Amino acid sequence: MKRNNHLVREIIYIHLNEKDQYVMSYGIEFAEFARSLSDLMNHVLLLKHQFDDGDFNMHTLLEYVPNERFKKLIQDDVYGYGDFCWIDFEEVEGLDELPGQELAEILYLGHIKDHLKQPFYNHLRNRFVYLAHDDGWWNKVYYRNMTDFYRMVGDVVADKLSEKKVEKNLFGLKKKRIFPSLPMDFLLNMRSLMKEGMVISLQDMTQNRAKIEIPIWVIGDYNNMDDMYDEYEKVVKGKCDIKLVFDKKLREWRSYSN
């Protein structure tokens, strides 16, 4: 049974598969992903969707979202699509030259949510393959360059914390407190935890005047996010494996093991 969507926003599950260059996740939504990485994309070929403002490509018999309408896709209710799958591409000319074998592989990706071969195509020059069911609940994203993934996670944790820490100013108006992204080298040091499957929980964070502490638990490899969440609910009662710490005075991130 699915939990409330607001819980998805405060808990991030990450399982990193370096060999096949993909990440399974829970709690990272398309809008958050796109806010971080949209500058690296041009057009998006839609494999599974309900977006009503795409262009039709006669060669692939699929719809795509041109760059100038990408913001509209970001603002759409992609969670409500159910399945939401896409692959980015640089130029329509490249899409029109896509060989039949590669198109078959791409259709398989959208249908089965798994790869036959590494899903990076010279004609498309794609950086990503984004496969989701109930976006933010079950996501599998392939990265041509894994540094894009680390950049995105660093941005998303900071953005989620900024959303969570909305405060009222003297006039009663809500004001975001902006947090810096997690540094790349900092995240690279957590690769081994990500490869085992870990949960970052803003829901269970603590703070005082000097710092904010965000706990991380290593919980294992899950494809079923109900099972993952059940395991999280068990381990959250015990000590976490590591903490992300934000020093409020220095405005810097650090981590330490429990």
From TrEMBL:
Protein name from the UniProt record: Oxalate:formate antiporter
Species whose genome carries this gene: Robertmurraya mangrovi
Upper lineage: Bacteria, Bacillati, Bacillota, Bacilli, Bacillales
